[in-house]
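Attaching the record inline, Q. Sequence:
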Amino acid sequence: MNELLPRDFYARDALQVARELLGAILRNGEVVLRITEVEAYRWPDDTANHGRHGRTLRNDALWGPPGRAYVYICYGIHHLLNLVTGEDGQATAVLVRACEPLKGLALIRDRRGGLSGPALLAGPGRVAQALGLDRSWNHHPVYEPGGVEVHKGPVVDKVLSGPRVGVDYAEPEHRDAAWRFAVADTAWVSRRSKLTARNNS
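Structure, as predicted:
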């Protein structure tokens, strides 16, 4: 396994962290995944951000410190994994939207009801389910060994970008911002039709 991404990696703007998380290795126990799609949620003016109305019991983990997990329940059903970014006290994070399986496929399929192919991991609720996550993982430091870990992966050169998913409540400038990023040359991506090629800058 490659080296763990350090805490300082996350202590930056969510857009930069999101782009560089593509290709990183996400691990929990025997399940090992390659991150293939992410969304950035910025601070302080992003109206799609969970922290836009202030700190609450639900979003407490979002406020830092960076390099920790923020896991919340979407629609009362799905757990979603976010990696907290920025400075301590800022509500900013990167949502892990899709992954490709590297190890632990049998356990992943068992947790995902026996599905196969991209349907296993193309969607943020699917990723968290495959990793066996719930809200007890809130505040977990992903830069330390043990439990959920994020390791350095190969650099991704070909990238897609487009609007984030499910943020119709946000102001148009944030709803339409191309703050979702995905690996271009993989099938393990959700809602590809809304994504377009971008350069490596």
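The domain at 7-155 is CATH 3.10.300.10 (3-methyladenine DNA Glycosylase; Chain A). Residues 28 and 146 are 8 Å apart (CA to CA).

More tomorrow.
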